[in-house]
């Protein structure tokens, strides 16, 4: 089964693609990256190895992985102009807006990337290393600014997730717990790609016009920001906190979620493709237990989340609509336990999804079948009519 999509709205084939990157089976809850089950990758691999697999199609040898890690680590700083741009943002700015703007602004500092049709293989290899390397700098640098803390330089001796956490929380005398870094590394693996979701389709649509890679990825970041998509992980935590602040009565919120007159939806529940369970949610739920136990944290929000899931899975409304926890339902509880603030959860999703976006962009631009995305419509407006002079209206 090839994951083939059509870039149309069902009214005429205005563009389609085949993809060999990620396979989903929504009925069976199957997710494979380049044929490898997500369960095996989450257990046995590391994020940078998965990024290599997605981008190049095969698991790397040790020397290939070492070289890839060196390339990513070589992008451990930003042009001064990007730091200056980030410094202009108010401290209360949402980090997703900062990341999107900073990534787009990179196009001003790397003009060699402006014309995607003239990229060499070396440029293609550089794109993933540079954007994986620089997105974590952007996120960490803005966070440290909001905390009035000096930036912590990237440490190439650390694995990707540990380096990020060290830049976020590290510095003198505050070593990163390897267990914590491993937990974040696993979350990054689970978010790395997901076929033609909203933000990845956005990347393909923007990329199909031959916009530069920074503008293309920045568009994906903006699409991910929405609370129906990547923004759901922050919305889940806000929902759980609201339930806790209202006495923990999650039944009331289940009722609200079913009330068609109430715009409230159970955040972290439901999925356009998975109609039984999201395999990532299962892995994250288990990781939740082990991470909180290792850190000696008892988070009452986890009890509320478990209660919500247990009740929803017995409720005909949710059962009839195949609504189950998705990747965002438990992830925020782990991010919070790792000391990451809620308004940064979606930037974690963006950091994880970066290799997926770039792999799909690379596949799209290499395909001869790619044409500019141009969805059509069914016109339901006024029929043809003549102009009326203003003094006749
Ligand atoms: C991600 O596509 C991907 O792969 C995305 C993603 C990825 O890795 O890239 O997996 C990441 O975005 C996960 C989804 C995160 N979003 C949320 O958790 C937000 C809450 N979920 C819903 O908004 C919704 O379930 C969506 C957006 C995820 C899916 O929307 P759909 O497929 O358009 O579902 P729908 O609106 O057609 O819903 C079908 C029915 C409707 O009721 P009826 O009109 O049939 O009576 O189910 C209801 C909906 O009202 N419904 C919900 C619900 N989700 C759907 N009711 C209450 N709570 C919900 N969460």
UniProtKB/TrEMBL annotation:
Belongs to the citrate synthase family. Transmembrane segments: none annotated. It comes from the Bacteria. Pathway: Carbohydrate metabolism; tricarboxylic acid cycle; isocitrate from oxaloacetate: step 1/2. NCBIfam families: PRK05614.1. GO terms for molecular function: citrate synthase activity. It comes from Methyloprofundus sedimenti. This is Citrate synthase. It catalyses: oxaloacetate + acetyl-CoA + H2O = citrate + CoA + H(+). GO terms for biological process: tricarboxylic acid cycle. Keywords: Transferase, Tricarboxylic acid cycle. The active site is at residues 271, 328.
């Amino acid at each position: 089964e090839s994951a083939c999509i059509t870039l149309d709205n069902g009214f005429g084939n205005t563009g389609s693609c085949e993809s060999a990157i990620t396979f989903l089976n929504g009925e069976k809850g199957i997710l494979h990256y380049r044929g490898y089950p997500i369960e095996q990758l989450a257990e046995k691999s590391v994020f940078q190895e998965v990024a290599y697999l997605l981008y190049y199609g095969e698991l790397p040898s040790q020397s290939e992985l070492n070289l890839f890690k060196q390339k990513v680590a070589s992008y451990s700083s930003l042009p001064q102009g990007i730091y200056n741009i980030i410094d202009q943002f108010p401290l209360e700015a949402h980090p997703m807006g900062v990341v999107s703007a900073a990534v787009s602004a990179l196009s001003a500092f790397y003009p060699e990337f402006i014309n995607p049709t003239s990229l060499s293989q070396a440029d293609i290899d550089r794109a993933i290393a540079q954007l994986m390397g620089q997105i974590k700098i952007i996120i960490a640098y803005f966070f440290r600014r909001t905390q009035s803390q000096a930036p912590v330089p990237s440490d190439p001796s650390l694995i990707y997730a540990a380096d990020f956490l060290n830049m976020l929380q590290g510095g003198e005398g505050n070593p990163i717990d390897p267990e914590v870094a491993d937990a974040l590394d696993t979350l990054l693996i689970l978010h790395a790609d997901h076929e033609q979701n909203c933000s990845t389709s956005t990347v393909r649509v923007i990329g199909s016009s031959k916009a530069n890679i920074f503008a293309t990825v920045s568009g994906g970041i903006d699409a991910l920001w929405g609370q129906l998509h990547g923004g759901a992980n922050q919305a889940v935590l806000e929902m759980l906190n609201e339930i806790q602040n209202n006495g923990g009565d999650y039944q009331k919120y289940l009722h609200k979620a079913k009330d068609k007159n109430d715009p409230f939806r159970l955040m972290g529940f439901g999925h356009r493709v998975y109609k039984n369970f999201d395999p990532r949610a299962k892995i994250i739920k288990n990781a939740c237990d082990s991470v909180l136990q290792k850190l000696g944290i008892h988070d009452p929000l986890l009890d509320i989340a478990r209660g919500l899931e247990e009740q929803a899975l017995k409720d005909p409304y949710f059962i009839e609509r195949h609504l189950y926890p998705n990747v965002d339902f438990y992830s925020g509880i782990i991010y919070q336990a790792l000391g990451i603030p809620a308004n940064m959860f979606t930037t974690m999703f963006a950091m994880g999804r970066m290799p997926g976006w770039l792999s799909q962009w690379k596949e799209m631009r290499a395909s001869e079948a790619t044409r500019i995305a141009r969805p059509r419509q069914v016109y339901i407006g006024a029929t043809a009519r003549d102009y009326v002079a203003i003094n006749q209206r």
